[in-house]
Amino acid sequence: MSHVKAGGTAKNTRDSPGQRLGVKVSGGQKVSVGQVIVRQIGLTKRAGDGTKLSRNFTIHAARDGVVTFTSRKVRNFTGRSIRRTEVTVV
After folding, report:
1. End-to-end distance of the chain based on CA atoms, in angstroms?
2. What are the boundaries of each domain within the chain?
């Protein structure tokens, strides 16, 4: 017979580090080619002129310039228009 009461296994012992997402360069700041402007999951912000979108939806500067954030309407797949922020480098 056991002399210790049976202990259950813990299920909440795993933890993952933060992914460091978000806006890395704010509006009005200067950027150089290839610099990361926004790290995001999915298209929460859209890439405009002077920017390029990588495979993991990170927005990079495609040319040297100043970052601007503007709001514009984008049509959803259901037909609704929703507001999204567009990132451009001028």
Report:
1. 77
2. 22-89
Q: Measured between alpha carbons, how far is 89 from 70 in angstroms, rounded to an integer?
A: 11
**Three-state SS for 21?**
coil
What is the per-residue burial (b if ≥16 Cβ within 10 Å, else e) of 40-52? Answer: beeeebbbbebbe
Q: How do residues 32-43 score in pLDDT, each as one tens digit?
A: 999 999 999 999
- 0.85 exceeded by the pTM? no
CA triple 76-78-79, angle to 5 deg: 65
Q: How many CB atoms lie within 10 A of CB 53?
A: 17
- 22-89: CATH class: mainly beta
Q: How far apart are CA 56 and CA 59, in angstroms?
A: 9
Distances (CA, A) of 6 to 10, 13, 45, 52, 87: 13, 19, 51, 57, 57
